[in-house]
Structure formats: structure tokens, C-alpha cells
Task: structure prediction
Amino acid sequence: MLLLAIETSCDETSVAVLRDGCVLANEVSSQIKLHEEYGGVVPELASREHLRNLMPVARQSLGQADVAPGELDAIAATRGPGLPGALLVGLRAAQGLAFALAKPFIGIHHHEAHLYSPWIGGEPLSLSLDDFQPNVSLIVSGGHTMLVHVAAPLEHRVLGGTVDDAAGECFDKAAKLIGLPYPGGPELDRLANEGDGSAHKFPRPMMRDDSHDFSFSGLKTSVRYFIRDNPSVLEDGQRLRNLCAGVQAAIVEVLVAKTIRAAKKLGVKYVTASGGVTCNSGLRAALGAACERESFVLRLANPTLCTDNAAMVGMIAHMHLAKGTAATSLDAEIVPGWKLAESAVC
Ligand code: KG4
Ligand code: ZN
Result:
């Protein structure tokens, strides 16, 4: 079974080719440079860039996999959630290809793809669901922050999510206030590693409440006021690094505390994490330490699969095909606001 998967929900154009659930190629073209001067993703520019890049990236991926389009057995693409114009490019290209080849099309939920990415590993990359255990999963990216209970493969329900900003958004906006280049998350992570997070303690919003929800916009405001009241902190290398470490410590502590609390409440033995912010070194270390202390087994998505990519889209399509829950109508439209709980709807 040869499957081609397309991901264009935000600012990465990615095409993967999988054979029987093994990744033969996973090409990703990032638009970071394009959006850098605006300090965030500009939706119209993102769509146009996907249009420009999709065919070259698809050609590259098929070439790397040494697969001709006519050999494909199924085509998958992210259907939502995401930027409408960006989703349209990948979805219609995938449906057009499926139509021309008379092969099934599978519309994928972007968060479902992130959710199972911690189970992708090995060389070549493949799903290791033989080790699957019920888990609590943290999906943490630029657009979303949520906790999900995964009872069995493809049986999951959202426990809670952010009521305002996503954790990645908080990283990026705090980094912008500090004057770091876009996207600020990775740069803030790098500087935080050389800083002292206890030099200034930022609030830990909703950390102790009983819900599985998060809130990060107040933390961002608190960073803004701190910089307004202490402008010299940006002029001094060590104080700036301490500031980065303080921001990272606050975000990470909340994410870890709420993930561990949810895992205890649900009585699972495994914790998993995925999404762009799972690249964060502080989060990876703190989740590792907390899981060890509390005797949870931790599975983190491979850093190359944390940010948006088509391999995880192809893998979830493969899971749906295997379970017989896959085929989506060729007339199916994008679902920009698709909620994970509704993901079984095709
Ligand atoms: O999953 P992703 O590629 O796109 C979305 O679906 O949003 O995640 C991108 C987010 C950005 O906010 C970026 O700053 C953040 O992930 N990110 C990080 C790190 N690497 C990526 N945040 C903190 N530390 C990092 N090392
Ligand atoms: Zn994503």
C-alpha cells in the first residue's frame, strides 16, 4: 500500500510518501523566512506560498521515495483545523490527484495527526502501536494547547485546552516583547538554557485549579509589564537570559503540572506529548523528570515530527485505512475550526 500525504494547514508545505505505514520520504518546506518580517503568519501569503511550493515538494518527495504518481494506492491531506486558504491548497490538490488516479482520498484531522506522532519511531520511521498503552497526551503548538485522553488507538477525547492563547503563542509573543526574531520559541529556549529562571517568578495561570484547561494570555501581559517596568533588562545579556528562563519556567511548569495531574486522575500509566512546543528543551527535561518521579512512562514525539509534517498525516491515514474508518468524499470541504472530539465525522 503506497500512500501520499499532504500537510498545508499553516506555514509548512509538506508531502510524505509511505509504504505499508513506513515513511519513505517526508519533505517539509517551511515559510518562516517569508513571515519573519511580519512577526507572524500572514494567511494570504501562506496560501500563495503553498501554491508555489506544493508541486516542487511533492515531486521531491516522490523522487526521494522512488515512487511514480501512478503507483499510489491512496491520497491523504489535512482537512482541518487550520488557515482556510492554506488548507484549501493541500486538500484540493489531494482530491484532484485521488480523482485522476481513481484512488481513495482520506481527509485528516491535524490534531489527530499530532496526537499519534509520539508512536512514530525507528528507521525507517513507522508506527510502533504494539507498545501502545492508554495515555494522557499533551498537544502543544503555536495554535493549540490541549490535554487528550487516548484510551486506545483512534479512541480519544479532549480533556481540556487553552481558554485563550496557546503555549507556543505565549512563547512567540513573549519572545517578540523581548526583541527576539520570529518565531521566538526556539530562540527563547536557547537563551533560557543559559539563564536563571528563579531570578523573576512569573505567574503560573490556572496551574492549581481543578480543570484540564490552560490560560496563557495573562502570563504574556505580565511579561509585557515586567519589561515596561524594567527596560534595562533587555540591555544586559545575563538579565535577558534570566528573563527568558523565567518565562520558559512558568510555561513549562504549568504544562507539566496539569499533564501529570490529568494522568493521575485518569489512572493511565503513559504520558505522551507532541506539537511544535514539544521541541522545547525545558519541557522535554521537566516532563521527563516529573514522569520519572511519578512513575509514568513518557513518550515524546521525535523532534523532527513535533513541528508540522506530512509523515504524521500519512501515519494517521494509514491507521484509519487499517481500521476501515478512512475514505472521505472527494467533495469534502475544509473544516478550519474542526474540533478533535468531532474527528470521527467524515
Ligand atoms: O506544531 P507547530 O509547528 O505549528 C502549529 O501547529 O502551531 O508549532 C509551532 C510552534 C511555534 O509557536 C514555535 O515557536 C514553537 O512551536 N516552538 C517552540 C520550540 N520549537 C518550536 N517553542 C518553544 N521552544 C522550542 N524549542
Ligand atoms: Zn501543528
Confidence is low (pLDDT under 50) at residues 342-346. Residues 237-266 form the longest helix (30 residues).
